[in-house]
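Entry 14. Two folds queued back to back today. First construct below, sequence then structure tokens.
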Amino acid sequence: MSKNGEPFTFVLMAKPNILALSGSIRSNSVNNVILDCIKNAYSSSLSVTIYDQLAELPYFNPDLTDAQHLPPAVGNFISSIEQADAVLLCTPEYVFSLPGVLKNAIEWTVATTVLQDKPTAMIVASLAGQKAFESLDLVLTTVGAKMTTKTKLLIGGAFGKLNKDTNTLDENTLAALRTLIDGLCELIGPD
């Protein structure tokens, strides 16, 4: 009871819901390890859902973006973004650009405003990655995703920062990921 005899009211704050997308559909990619690492490290404060169905999305077709023709897989994908408090993308660089599967997924959002002002963090983890980083930054900025310099991370030489025996990342990479997630949480803000 409170001082005035009223019962205390406890409000349970829901953990922010983060939708994580990997630009790699390879099961043992370093990008998937990074997302798993974030999911596990922040399990007490964030609810991270790794969306693993990018390969199921059909090729983007502007003729199919209206509600009557939208493919069910695309509708589910867009709904997943709508329901998330934030989006986290982690991708390799393929031929100095984004993997087609990730670019295709983002293209499906163009006919909507689902990413407009959505708190977003991006990680490019690849051998070099600079071109994919620039490309992803441009694409996400174009669709209106809400980002800051703290929510953008380039991890060059990513495979060398992974301990293959334990599937863990080195301390410098973990520190950089902490900064990124802190920045994303700042964008989400309090409920």
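Second construct, same run, same settings:
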Amino acid sequence: MIESAESCLAQAREVSRIAREAGFPLVFKASFDKANRTSARSFRGPGLDEGLEILAAVRRELGVPVLTDIHTCEQAERAAEVADILQTPAFLCRQTDLLVSAGRTGRPVNVKKGQFLSPELMAHAAAKVLEGAEQAGLAPGGVLLTERGTSFGYGDLVVDMRSLVIMRATGWPVVFDATHSVQRPGGRGSSSGGDRTMAGPLARAAVAVGIDALFVETHPDPSRALSDADTQIPHAELPRLLAEVRAIRGSAERLG
């Protein structure tokens, strides 16, 4: 989430450096509005106008593609003026109008799988994005499908690694969200909790199964983060995680 212009640019610079040194391509993601906070009093971000200005500054200064999420149809066209990739939140993965609107921009769209949805049904979400591009007379920008855990009871998530295989069978690239998958929704009463120590093991497992991209929320000091404080990975721990997943990816490729 964009906490401020200064912090967003500083984090983008650091994450870009870490990714470059690890030999990984980077798509920088930040939200201008976290519209699904547990409490109405939680910080949501700077809003659409200021948030897009900040993301444009990141893109301009660092030369990296940027991704941001949209929550309403009206936001799609505006966000597409800046973002290289649009994202639809997990809770909204069945919202036809939102998916179609995202597709109509011609931008690639990352659709996060709802915590309540089976992986097989994500093919329909992808089809809605393609429908939007067709309506606009555009070549589809493409679709990515993201796994971020499935509801387990009322306050926990589990990851079924079969989901990665099933969604990959759709032919679209599959992303694993290692940090949102270890959330405990509402675990702190007025905010989500979670266990960041499980993010690394799940990321390593997902890479072994087979994914096309890894989504990781990170912060220089997660204890001070204004969102997802319990699940973000400290910047200092990113190099080791990237080295581990690179080694696993290399081993999987050698095995065929």
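Quick look at the second one. The two ends are 38 Å apart (CA to CA). The mean pLDDT is 96.
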